[in-house]
TrEMBL record:
Keyword Disulfide bond appears in the UniProt entry: no
Keywords assigned by UniProt, alphabetized: Transferase
Organism: Bernardetia litoralis (strain ATCC 23117 / DSM 6794 / NBRC 15988 / NCIMB 1366 / Fx l1 / Sio-4)
Protein name: 3-oxoacid CoA-transferase, A subunit
Pfam families: CoA_trans (PF01144)
Length: 248
């Protein structure tokens, strides 16, 4: 091997080592999260939530957070754990009906809440990841949602302007991922996770199975690694069912 090739090989290895995205656990992957930051937390109800990351955030005890999540989990699981610790000062959500502590904090004035139509919330996150600063939507026109927002008429129908959402950290749960951060979701656990993975300044992904590079079929990758800064293999997933419906 020529001297030039040796030097280039060493430079390449140094670059790759600095780009290592794999973290040993949630505790190390959340390093840098500080008080008063804005966080995105993927999942819908209790489906596809980043359980390990939430537990680590609760343990770390950061406060004053603005959390963007489809909802606040339930009282004793998911984002609800952070509410019980009074870590959240503001929730940006679309549905919050399953959490009694959320309701209590809202009615008592302890918690600021921005309720957003569900499709609008998804699109605001997607726009944030796509570099689109704002968009017009008919959802919410003529309601409290439209207060203080620009409106415009298109083809005889009224629309209101919604701004994109971004976060200091986005916490995402996926089924499989590789060491470069390419990830695959499974079933309905995909929900809000792809949009939020794209909209975080630092995106932390926890996966059920971490595989070597090249093992994932490129045709089935939902989010490419360019959007992911940190990835780790989670453990002890409970995967609780929010509401179980059975026949008698």
């Amino acid at each position: 091997m020529s001297l030039v090739k040796v030097i280039l090989s060493r430079i390449y290895k140094q670059i790759i080592s600095k780009m290592n995205k794999v973290y040993p656990n949630a505790e190390t992957a959340i390093e840098g999260v500080e008080d008063n930051m804005t966080l995105m937390l993927g999942g819908f109800g209790l489906c596809g939530i980043p359980e390990n990351s939430i537990a680590a955030l609760v343990e770390k005890g950061v406060t004053g957070l603005t959390c963007i999540s489809s909802n606040a989990g339930v009282d004793d699981f998911g984002v609800g754990l952070m509410l019980h610790k009074h870590q959240i000062k503001k929730m940006i959500s679309s549905y919050v009906g399953e959490n009694a502590e959320f309701e209590r904090q809202l009615l008592s004035g302890e918690l600021e809440v921005d309720l957003i139509p569900q499709g609008t919330l998804a699109e605001r996150c997607r726009a944030g990841g796509a570099g689109i600063p704002a968009f017009f939507t008919p959802a919410g026109f003529g309601t409290e949602v439209a207060e203080g927002k620009e409106t415009r008429e298109y083809n005889g129908k009224m629309y209101l302007l919604e701004e994109a959402l971004q976060a200091d950290f986005a916490f995402v749960k996926a089924w499989k991922g590789d060491r470069e951060g390419n990830i695959i979701f499974k079933g309905t656990a995909q929900n809000f996770n792809p949009m939020m993975a794209m909209a975080g300044k630092i995106t932390v992904v926890e996966v059920e199975e971490l595989v070597e590079n090249g093992e994932l079929d490129p045709n089935f990758i939902h989010i490419p690694g360019i959007f992911v800064q940190r990835i780790f293999e989670g453990k002890n997933y409970e995967k609780r069912i929010e509401k179980r419906t059975v026949r008698s």
